[in-house]
Amino acid sequence: MGSISLRTIAIATVAVLAAGFGLAFFYAPEDADQGFIQKIFYLHVPLAICALLGFIVAAIHAIRHLRTGDPIHDARSYVSIHLSVIFGVGVLLTGAIWARGSWGVWWEWREPTLVSFLIVFLLYATYYPLRYAIEDRDRQARYASVFAITAGAFVPLNFLAVRLAEPLIHPRTFSSAGGLPAEMMLAFLVCLVGMGLLWVTLVRFELGAKAASADLGRIRRALQGDGAPPAPAPSVAPVGVSATSAMSAGSAERSREGAPPGATRFRKKAS
Amino acid sequence: MPPLLLAIEDAEGYVGGAYLVFLLLLLVYVAIMAAKLQRIQRDLGELAELAEQPRRSEEVSGR
Amino acid sequence: MSAYRTLLAKDLRIELRTLRSLPAMVLFAVTTFVIFRFGLDRTELEGDLGAGVLVATLLFAAILAINRLFVAERDEGGFELIRLAPVDRNILFASKATALVIYLVALELVAVPIFALFFLDTAEGLPPLAAVLLLADIGLAATGTLISTIATMSSARDLLAPLILLPLLVPLVIATSGAAQHLLDAGGPDFDRFGTWIAVLGLYDSVFVLVGYATFDYLLED
Q1: Structural domain contains residue A39
Q2: Is residue A223, in this structure, part of any structural domain at all?
Q3: Which residue range is the domain that position B62 belongs to?
């Protein structure tokens, strides 16, 4: 998995997303019910699906972290959550715009996707205060992993409960109820794949940056250890210290194997 | 059909707005990462200096 | 098994002797009912409004207990003891969660009749409500114990626990209120979608008891 370079994936992302959006606007027909505003569907729903899958991926990385103790999994978990939270912001914003355009209101409690996402976002937003509140980096990583697993288990339950809270199939939903016509489905799937690739690209990008920071720290300490007393470990946000300096151990082995540091191992999810 | 035209314009505005928000989020992320990258480059430069110094002083004193 | 019983008995004995959490929870609940009476300007509650007031109040009272769940362990080295003892550390999760369920049930035994006294016309809906609340208590205890452990070891513990816990409990609140609102209807209990909500509560409880039990050990590691 780490053999596909970041550059390749980035190019693939651009290509697929461009194709997806192109299909959405020029190939897929306009929705009979909602009109042109439905085009937001091709942006909002793939963002949502990728964010949610990202949270699940983070939970899987967290499980591996707890089982192996290898900090590289903690870094992957952290970055996965980070990107998914950012995607989540996108979901909420595009969702609000869609609601405004469709029904004239900026927020709609009867739209299960939006509401579920709000709750999930509120939960994962506490990930950061949690990490910052624990000094010891090993403990911080472990606790963050437990949180990621708990929150990952929570996501499907949350969606189930919120959806059940709206018993009637209310007309005010974002779901293109009933089957999608084939052209729409194609455009949607391509956009979904594109968003997934975007997520992967950004995760690997950020992991790479973290690895570089970590390596820098190591070099600095090694150089300064030659004569001057070793500089104190950078007391940046504890997250930086734990994830990056711990990642350096992992990345050293990895670079010897020729794979890029911070290679994120997970399968492209099926839609 | 002015009202229908206005409706279409409105919808386009919202759709455009949504995609614009997506683009802006992406750009903000890229900007933040760019700032990080700059810091890494600067630190790397400092460390390169640091690494070259002892060698220079060795060359001077080792003769 | 006997370690579980010992730990549970210890917690209950301490609570009975010091009365650290229970009276505060009950008092908080009753006072909150009074606040709602004036805040909503109503002397009768039923249906979804009644369910909401009851569930929200019980939830916040539970958080009081959750915040103090591990105080003794933290201050008196209880965590070190369990690490050294030759028992499965998850036992502590089980015993603490059970203790929390017991506190919550005790709270409800007092608070719910008072709620009925203050706001309800008929007490017919109370027995099935008790079953719903028991299921909710289990879920509340599982997540509460887990998050309380996480928060205890951090520096912002009183703030962090409710912050993480409240979003996590939303499905529980949805299901509990969903069932309760029909049970508290003015004309007598209605079992509309009762099975659905019980199923959701059961699912929630199973998932979080499992997750809590499976991950607790990693929280206790030094």
Answers
A1: yes
A2: no
A3: 25-63
Please identify every stretch of chain C with a pLDDT value under 70, giving residue numbers as ranges.
Answer: none
Q: Do B18 and A44 touch (CB under 8 A)?
A: yes
The interface predicted TM-score of the complex, written ipTM, equals 0.88
Q: What is the Cα C169 distance to its own chain's centre? A: 10
Interface of B with A in 1-60 (CB under 8 A): 7-8, 10-12, 14-15, 17-19, 21-22, 25, 29, 33, 36-37, 40, 43-44, 47, 50-51, 54
Domain limits for position A121: 8-205
Lowest mean pLDDT among A111-125, B45-59, C136-150: B45-59
pTM (predicted TM-score): 0.83
Q: Please give the Cα distance from C143 to C211 (Å, whole number).
A: 9
Question: CA-nearest residue of chain C to A67?
Answer: C218
- Output the pLDDT for position B8: 54
Count how many pairs of residues, chain A against chain C, have C-beta atoms within 8 Å: 92
Contacts of A160 (CB under 8 A, 6+ apart): C171, C200, C203
Domain count, chain B: 1
Dihedral, A54, A60, A66, A71 alpha carbons, nearest 10: -50
**Over chain A, what is the mean pLDDT?**
81
Report if residue A248 sits inside a domain: no
